[in-house]
Amino acid sequence: MSFKLLIVGSGSAVPTLTRAVTSQYLNFNERRILIDCGEGTQLQLRKFKVRFQRLQYIFISHLHGDHFLGIFGLLSSMNLLGRTQKLIIFVRMDWRR
């Protein structure tokens, strides 16, 4: 069983030069999962040499901007690069948070 967790960003709502906004990449038995997708996540994925075209699942923990605003650019880049593979996106829709 393989398990790899990469903290892509942990800089809360405001990115800095050394910390990006929230995102984690998980590879669990070749299931490639992105947890949250803050702004700039795809640049961070490139920085850490994660092939984001191989992502299978994206989980958005809640709808604060620092957890999901990067998903639009990521999906656009995947499309421009010719992705045809299925991508499953889970969004927690709890508005009380």
Blueprint of the fold:
Elements: E1 3-9, E2 23-28, E3 31-35, H1 41-47, E4 57-60, H2 65-68, H3 71-80, E5 88-91
Overview of the structural elements:
The structure is a single chain. The chain is of the alpha/beta class and 97 residues long. It has one domain: Ribonuclease Z/Hydroxyacylglutathione hydrolase-like (Metallo-beta-lactamase, Chain A, 4-Layer Sandwich), CATH 3.60.15.10. The protein has helices at 41-47, 65-68, 71-80; strands at residues 3-9, 23-28, 31-35, 57-60, 88-91. It is globular. The model has no long low-confidence stretch (mean pLDDT 93).
List keywords for this structure.
97 residues, alpha/beta, Metallo-beta-lactamase, Chain A, five-stranded mixed beta sheet, 3 helices, 5 strands
